[in-house]
Amino acid sequence: MFMHNKELLQPVKVERPNPTYAAMLTEQLGGPQGEMKAAMQYMAQSFRIKDPAIKDLFMDIAAEELSHMEMVATTVNLLNGHDVDAPAVAAGHIESHVLMGLNPALSNASGYLWTAAYVNVTGDLPADLLSNIASEQRAKVVYEYLHRQIEDKYVRQTIDFLLNREEAHNTLFRQAFNRVQGTSSTQDWGVDENARLYFDLSTPGKYFDIKDPQPPVFRTPDPGARQPQ
Amino acid sequence: MFMHNKELLQPVKVERPNPTYAAMLTEQLGGPQGEMKAAMQYMAQSFRIKDPAIKDLFMDIAAEELSHMEMVATTVNLLNGHDVDAPAVAAGHIESHVLMGLNPALSNASGYLWTAAYVNVTGDLPADLLSNIASEQRAKVVYEYLHRQIEDKYVRQTIDFLLNREEAHNTLFRQAFNRVQGTSSTQDWGVDENARLYFDLSTPGKYFDIKDPQPPVFRTPDPGARQPQ
Amino acid sequence: MFMHNKELLQPVKVERPNPTYAAMLTEQLGGPQGEMKAAMQYMAQSFRIKDPAIKDLFMDIAAEELSHMEMVATTVNLLNGHDVDAPAVAAGHIESHVLMGLNPALSNASGYLWTAAYVNVTGDLPADLLSNIASEQRAKVVYEYLHRQIEDKYVRQTIDFLLNREEAHNTLFRQAFNRVQGTSSTQDWGVDENARLYFDLSTPGKYFDIKDPQPPVFRTPDPGARQPQ
Amino acid sequence: MFMHNKELLQPVKVERPNPTYAAMLTEQLGGPQGEMKAAMQYMAQSFRIKDPAIKDLFMDIAAEELSHMEMVATTVNLLNGHDVDAPAVAAGHIESHVLMGLNPALSNASGYLWTAAYVNVTGDLPADLLSNIASEQRAKVVYEYLHRQIEDKYVRQTIDFLLNREEAHNTLFRQAFNRVQGTSSTQDWGVDENARLYFDLSTPGKYFDIKDPQPPVFRTPDPGARQPQ
Amino acid sequence: MFMHNKELLQPVKVERPNPTYAAMLTEQLGGPQGEMKAAMQYMAQSFRIKDPAIKDLFMDIAAEELSHMEMVATTVNLLNGHDVDAPAVAAGHIESHVLMGLNPALSNASGYLWTAAYVNVTGDLPADLLSNIASEQRAKVVYEYLHRQIEDKYVRQTIDFLLNREEAHNTLFRQAFNRVQGTSSTQDWGVDENARLYFDLSTPGKYFDIKDPQPPVFRTPDPGARQPQ
Amino acid sequence: MFMHNKELLQPVKVERPNPTYAAMLTEQLGGPQGEMKAAMQYMAQSFRIKDPAIKDLFMDIAAEELSHMEMVATTVNLLNGHDVDAPAVAAGHIESHVLMGLNPALSNASGYLWTAAYVNVTGDLPADLLSNIASEQRAKVVYEYLHRQIEDKYVRQTIDFLLNREEAHNTLFRQAFNRVQGTSSTQDWGVDENARLYFDLSTPGKYFDIKDPQPPVFRTPDPGARQPQ
């Protein structure tokens, strides 16, 4: 079960309203690399997990991503300002101004509505962990792009916080991945000849080859971390 | 530019029509872990890549995934049989029977139409490579699920081939990832205190912690492979 | 911020696996009248609300709907059984069997993926409350349909619980609505002649007319409840 | 069956072209609270209704909403002006300029294409009527937002007309709701203990409670209206 | 403006309920070649048309397609029977049974919700007419597939009627096309060398070439028809 | 199988970056009349075709459309410039700046993600060819709109090339159509009285009638072309 506390995980504020940046930041509320996606993906993956350490990790992070979602939405709300005024949005979606009375939208920055097509669940622990590691890396990248396009120091602080949290999650998911390496879809790697072929279909150029393929394992993600039992 | 050869990358056949399995296998034609998604993701990522080795790798694999898409579609077409008969589909979508005259559909097994929401492109090479490694792992998993649910030996051979190719791509993408490690979004990892926090938001239980976070690096994916120049 | 407890809001179990009913019950996980929609709608509406009583009500219920989402997903997971077997699904989507390793899907019963198009937010408190009252009524109806189509006594208990909770939410949202009646979009009702016209465009028949239109107000939803301050 | 008359339900004109406002007004053509949605929802709900008074009301209003759709589209078309010129759209979608030769789009103001995910049909008369009352309230709100953002006096007249018509429909749907109160999903309200619980999951704060829950009934929506037979 | 008459354009009935065929026939209610699509496409195209003969033709047919939509929906409703029972649907979507109380759905046969992505509007009369001719041809094909899969003689009569109406519309749209030939996008055909190249990109085989390309014109679609003034 | 050559089908360049036009041109990368749609439609239709001449034509053109897709994407990439800067996009989607690090998007100009709902496949050769002829005509129209809104001479050259190629494809598809006339869905035209009715449902006005309907045939699309064997 979920509980909510009206205090934010980390307080947010803005120097001043900025309806254009409100639209841009919406990307991380309802876009493919955004907080809602992260929360829903980890929650959806957790429903069948047996391993208590990994189930706990997924729900710790899912609850945190819901809390990030709230931080991003609160920031967008502050940036939206006080009056509906669609032409004040220099670029990006205008739904907050014509549809929602300045509420933040569950969409990306251009107004494409959030869809569960963003969520990857396979029920295979190594594959789901790789999905999550990639998701966290992408989320970091999007926060970097957003960071470069805003001067507001409070918004930058919020983005900094969120970006660093994605790194933390990324590190943790790699620890979890290494814990399950050699199981499920990482077993029996490259046993068949076809796993060692290279089809050089784009010409010119061939730069890689395969000889002795190994399943995915990360180098120690955190040398100082204790091993989960 | 693209060219096409009417020979398949690998020939396909089926023991007998099987409209239910045709619907099921459609998952890998137009689903989120399917061949069309893979082809479009790698192609879309390649448009801005400068590094010639990685650009070549992406287009080699994109062209191969288009060729896989053709193999899967040809197999679905054979499985669909000779007469439109929707009730012969025991489970899954029926569009081949009511809409498409037994053609394969660009949808998942339940009829959800392919969407570019499946495609992840960030323009950051490490992030895009992690996306691709995760995609290939998920595609392998889906082929395993499909393999378990069919007796047809020719279909099994085709699935075996495709599954092994996903392993090959996975291995290659990891080689490429390690080539770019330490650049772009893998730089400056964990410099901020927030990257070392653990919010224990799901109770009871806390199994992981962070002390000295490192950016993602894979253990050597293929000890025998030569290094791209 | 959100916290999670691994205990469910109400424990769930099933008499036996039932993959067909698993697909059917998915409707209330990821369908338009389902728990994810309810949670996301109330959370999204809350981001701009000033009135502390109503903001609290929305977040109390949003957190509960997230907890319902977990109950429904856990039930679907149990019903999915132990082996991927798409043809065992007599009707409805088969993604749990071909894509997700028996995990529950964020879709409706027929596999249409959850979309934020289901979520209504206007930023006008009376309008948003009417949306929520209607949502709760519809959710009750869907649970009634699902109740009629299952014999499993534990699943029935879970549905009974959830159905009754929708009634509770409905009652509470009406209390909140009456608290804000006469404000925002319920002001200035019927001041213009056009609000009193009836266009009898479907023939034959005309059964209703308008003389003295009044804005929406509910009869006391709960005579025993104390008034929020 | 439907018939069409080339005269609009109410004539429309504009003071001058305004491509930005054309995009904004598109919200009420193809958005979630727009005219197409209303027409399709009431029509789709009517297909199974037996009660002749209510079926007639739904089709009277569905036909009117189709006529509103035509009025909105005609206005958007006039506002689009005479030359394709995407950069003249200061905010919102640009499909009229790059795709449609200045035709209005079946999308919201930001270009999200109309989807039947906006349409709620349950086949339960009280629930469907509550959906419609909420829809009409939301449509009024959106017209208010749009009214505030345009100076063109003719466009304002059209919006005024449409806004008032939503009030009329809202009043009529409440009359119809009260006619069916106590039937279907409004029966047996609060018989179970669970319908009287309050989960105080968001802290701090608890402002509402439930003691003696009643099903939804509106106060007399129109004291002067005659009762349908 | 639109008006509605409760008499259907053509009466419909069914021999007996058939929930599976109800799902199948839904294809022509809310699928890409269905009646809703046709109605919305012709209506959306008409909003900017100046030529009175063509505008009248589009609205005559749009109103008829709305009337077909009503016929199809009424038939689906009859086929759905009297009790919600999802497993009675042998193939196709089950939303009528779990969500809608046996109402017909605005989706295709597999439950994919209607989307305006099906609608083609370019604002160029020859292009829009070609779209409509193709749409009518496809609709005929889908009715043929559906006809082959049902024994119910009344349903067959309805399908026969609708199929023949698509032929009529097809013929009329071709008459209209030939009336506008040589205008807009059919002007200046093949003036550039690039319009006469053939890229033989799929090997082996080359069967066609281009020497003296002409814009599209249909052979007289109806030798007996009078010419519109 | 598909192969790729890193040389473009036709080289592209731009005079200077133009982020607004980059967004606009995205319409033909991932919009409903764009190159990805064309490639996927012809490929998807080809999977069941027996006639070798027509199968070859479809794959020749599908491979070319993939190559066009690459040309359009490369041009968008050049137009996007060198720095993420969403407000520099005066109109249209901003995903390249907030999500994708200046990569082109698989969406239309307003950010609606590519969907297989754009793709028409019926498995009936005459119907599919009519779809393709209409698609090519619409693609030409969109290129004309885009041509009018850009001064950049290199971009104009690219658009000219692509526009002329659509004419070539259109001509070829008509040759193919006439080759299959009288088969499949073009047989038995107008045998039933209902194919000769005209419902004059939009008043005032009736300009067309039907007396002796004929199936679709094009006047010779290319008098100089040799007949395929």
TrEMBL record, chains A, B, C, D, E, F:
Coiled coil: none annotated. It comes from the Bacteria. Pfam families: Mn_catalase. Belongs to the manganese catalase family. InterPro entries: Ferritin-like, Ferritin-like_SF, Mn_catalase, Mn_catalase_dom. Residues 208-229 are annotated as: Disordered. This is Manganese catalase family protein. It comes from Anaeroselena agilis.
